[in-house]
Amino acid sequence: MFFDTHAHLDDRAFDEDRDKLIMSFRDVGVTRVLNASSDMESSLETAKLCKKYDFIYGAVGIHPEAADRFEDGDLESLAGLTKEKNIVAIGETGLDYYYDDIPKDVQKKVFKAQAALAYELRLPLIVHDREAHRDCFDILKEFPGIRSVYHCFSGSVEYALELIKLGFYMSFGGAVTFKNARHAPEVIARIPKERIMLETDCPYMAPVPFRGKRNHPGYIPHIAAKVAEIWGVTPERVGEITTANAKEFFNIQ
Ligand code: NI
Fold it and tell me: How far is the CA of 25 from the centre of ligand 1 (A)?
């Protein structure tokens, strides 16, 4: 069985067939999904999904691309949402310097506030780091002992090992199946297996052979197959290991 630790099932891409699709994940062995939020509205939708489905867990938070819409009171609202059923983390949050439409100082302020919230509430944090390695690292270091997962990790082995030392986890998605995947396969081979989780980041980043199409948690077995190839174990074993890691990280019984 598999655990998709980073999906966006509240995305508009699923409006037509959300419930039907969600009910199909178990047919391919995907028995748990964590929905990551992207802004306040998405955090409310995540809480609704968690209420409706026992096997859906949620993270509430504000993505760096929505950082300019952060308002006074949002942190309190997020803290309130963490009391809802199956909400187990803060995120996704972080820094994204790929596009420069949101000033770095605004992104940093909103990321730091959410890291502080996760730290205070002793909840894990889902981190989005795109071309912002140094700043992300510096902010997280201000919260010693914080539990973080770098989602869709694309950094080097050296960077991964630095993060492992801080106790962090890494999750990998469809990009590991791409022909031009650079660092990810090497990182998966080199870091401890107990720090690795699987994700789709759907509706984006569909694995081969669905690349370019709408992604969804039912495609997790294709990502597991690639990790299995790298580790030299069966996909079922990858499912067992990564599900155990996710349950430990998100503190799920
Ligand atoms: Ni995401």
Answer: 19
Residue 11: exposure state from Cβ atoms within 10 A (0-12, 13-18, ≥19): middle
Report the separation in Å between the CA atom of 124 and the middle of ligand 1, taken as the mean of its atom positions: 15
CB distance 207 to 177 below 8 Å: yes
The domain total for the chain is 1
11: left (phi over 0), alpha (psi -120 to 50) or beta: beta
Instruction: Identify the pLDDT of residue 181.
Output: 87
Q: What range defines the domain where residue 167 resides?
A: 2-249
Please give the model's pTM, rounded to 2 decimal places: 0.97
Cα–Cα distance, 236 to 28 (Å, whole number): 12
| Closest CA relative to residue 67, chosen from 98, 100, 36, 95 | 95
14 alpha carbon – ligand 1 mean position (Å):
15
DSSP letter for each residue of 49-114: HHHH-TTEEEEE---GGGGGG--TTHHHHHHHHTTSTTEEEEEEEEEE-SS-SS-HHHHHHHHHHH
* Cβ contact 4:200 at 8 Å: yes
Q: How far from 114 is each of 19, 61, 176, 190, 191, CA to CA, in Å? A: 30, 7, 28, 30, 27
Could you tell me the CATH number of the domain that includes residue 99?
3.20.20.140
List, for residues 227-248, the tens digit of each pLDDT value. Answer: 999 999 999 999 999 999 999 9
CA–centroid distance, 34 to ligand 1, in Å, is: 11
Instruction: For residue 96, give the amino acid letter.
Output: D
